[in-house]
Specification:
Strand content: 15-25%
Largest sheet: 4 strands, antiparallel
Low-confidence stretches: 204-209
Strand order of the largest sheet: 1-2-3-4
Number of strands: 8
């Protein structure tokens, strides 16, 4: 099939265990669909968007997925948390990559390749309100730095540990907000977008003296 001028030719490109063979047309969303062959032997179709975001296997039930053969928890909260954490660290197209992988946050090699090792350390989430959290928000996903926490616990953790360097001073975001009379949520939002230094004080005139 002939592609439009804006359509990328994926033929012959490998994505994980999947090799793209040919374009088979467009789906109902007018997105190009590509026939692919997985190393497990199965033929599957993947959209251009899926290939762009990253594909590792033909499907979640692919026999090459080590986790499918060992833990049987592919659809659990814990497994989703593990996949999401890896995506934040290693998938540039992820919406939060800039504040994780983009600034060097990674997952230890033992956990990255083996969900069972990850689960053996963190265990099951206590409740549906608990999500995966790093004790040191500047540290990696590794033993001793990961826990299940509620949103309130995570917010408190961010206030206490997120640090910035502003006007020659290393200071926590919470103290930065108090010192310059800013709303913490606004400062944190700027930090999450990757802003640093003076950019965190975007609403604070450079010449204004901080509160004492």
């Amino acid at each position: 099939m002939e592609l439009s001028a804006r359509g990328k030719d994926w033929a012959g490109i490998r994505r994980g265990h999947v090799v793209v063979v040919k374009c088979v047309g467009q789906n109902k969303h007018n997105t190009y669909e590509w026939e692919c062959v997985c190393d497990c032997g199965k033929v599957c179709n993947k959209s251009a968007g899926m290939l762009q975001r990253g594909v590792d296997y033909c499907s979640n039930s692919c026999t090459l997925r080590k986790t499918n053969l060992t833990h049987g928890q592919s659809y659990t909260r814990e497994y989703r948390a593990w996949v999401s954490a890896k995506s934040r660290c290693y998938t540039p197209s992820h919406k939060n990559y800039a504040t994780y992988g983009g600034r060097g946050i990674k997952m230890c090699s033992e956990w990255k390749e083996d969900f069972s090792a990850f689960f053996a350390h963190v265990g099951a989430a206590p409740t549906d309100k608990h999500t995966l959290d790093r004790v040191d928000s500047n540290g990696d996903y590794e033993a001793g730095n990961v826990r299940w926490a509620t949103q309130q616990e995570q917010n408190n953790n961010r206030r206490d540990t997120l640090m910035a360097h502003v006007r020659g001073e290393d200071i926590s975001l919470a103290n930065l907000a108090r010192k310059y009379g800013l709303v913490y949520g606004s400062v944190f939002a700027r930090y999450s977008r990757g802003l640093r230094g003076e950019e965190l004080l975007v609403n604070q005139p450079i010449g204004r003296k901080p509160k004492r």
